[in-house]
Amino acid sequence: MQDMLVQVEPLIPALRRYARSLVRDRATADDLVQDCLERAVSHWHQRRDGSVRAWLFTILHNLAISQFRQSAARGSHVPIDESNEDDFSEAAAQDQKLMYRDVLNKLARLPKDQQAVLLLVGVEDLSYADAAKVLGVPVGTVMSRLSRARERLQQELEGPSNGEASNIVSIRSARE
Amino acid sequence: MSHRPITEDDLHGYVDRVLEPERQAQVAAYLNDHPEVAKRVAAFTDQREGLRAALAPIAEEPLPAELNLKRIIEQRARRPSFVRWAAAALVLLSIGGIGGWSMRGALQGSPGGLAALGQEAAASYSVYAPDRVRPVEVRASDSAELVQWVSDRLHRPVKAPDLTTSGYRLMGGRIVASSHGPAAMFMYDDDHGSRIVVLIRAMSSADQNAPMTPQSQGDVGGFAWADDGLGYSLMGRAAPESLRPIADEVRRQSRPI
């Protein structure tokens, strides 16, 4: 188990970041990471050769996806714009907060599979091949999904609401 | 200089900085010549940097206790051992329930062992003393045969105590079952017809020697003790104070002079 500690422990902060980026709620995200780590510990000897990083992100991603399905089935989905955005940026300087909040809010409007590929590739530095493993799709699908995600996020960022995030929040909240 | 055409994948590879250096340079040159594409790629790069910067603080946060991997590993390691412990506890409970009866003398020390002996003697008394037809299997008239029989079964010389000085005559005896194998039961009566039994059997290793202690079960009472690996119990319905001297006499006779 010592090799596991050495290989897995340094990755926990990144796992937390990915989980919270996807589910946005700190407690829910940490629960997912805890679940992920427990599974990793109990299945450590069953992992295949390859990147431990990709293996861990695969476990976490699948847990997050089933979490989304469950909360969707329960109808208890927390609307994105009502979540606590300070969970993301409390350590950032105040003048950066709005900018960060904006990009994260725009990210949250993308389909989950597009969010996932942007986060895995762009933030967590997984190779395209490892991202394909995590998402369970061919590398070609990762590339086309990445392309669509970046185009879509750019549309959101350049949209009429740019710089007017608070208005959008209130409109969306009233509608939902 | 000709090279492979630039693809959409190359542009993302450029943004993510995963291209070979040579290809990276080719894409840079292409972007230099195509400002519209370069604008898109720059926007993608800004997105990427923006997301990284916005999310970086999460990875800087101290890990909460429940994400302590060492603890998770330890808890995991403890679970199977708990199962083993539970299984062991079940076994021990079974031993306690089934084997404990015979083990309790060894576990509890002398009083437990003597208590068991006293109970067995009292049970023998209750079964055989009221028997008017055949209270004993071998009569005192065949005492030599009786002594031989019980000595054979107990694998050591056993004598029938002579209690005539106490007013009790040997009626005879038999082998009875005990928790420690065969036990020699001797029965005596006095002139009034009141009977007593002396039960002799092997003791567990923990009770090779034990001082005389009073024992009783229901209205049957008496004493039990152990000498040199053999347990003795004298039981009757007489008052304990009248039985005690008889027990002392039995013990005196059983000990080597």
Automatic annotation (TrEMBL), chain A:
Residues 156-176 are annotated as: Disordered. SUPFAM superfamilies: Sigma2 domain of RNA polymerase sigma factors, Sigma3 and sigma4 domains of RNA polymerase sigma factors. The keyword Transcription regulation applies. One of its GO terms (molecular function) is sigma factor activity. Gene3D superfamilies: 1.10.1740.10, Winged helix-like DNA-binding domain superfamily/Winged helix DNA-binding domain. Pfam families: PhyR_sigma2, Sigma70_r4_2. Residues 102-153 form the RNA polymerase sigma factor 70 region 4 type domain. This is RNA polymerase subunit sigma. It comes from Bradyrhizobium centrolobii.
TrEMBL record, chain B:
The keyword Membrane applies. Keywords: Membrane, Transmembrane, Transmembrane helix. The chain crosses the membrane at residues 82-101. This is Anti-sigma factor. It comes from Bradyrhizobium centrolobii.
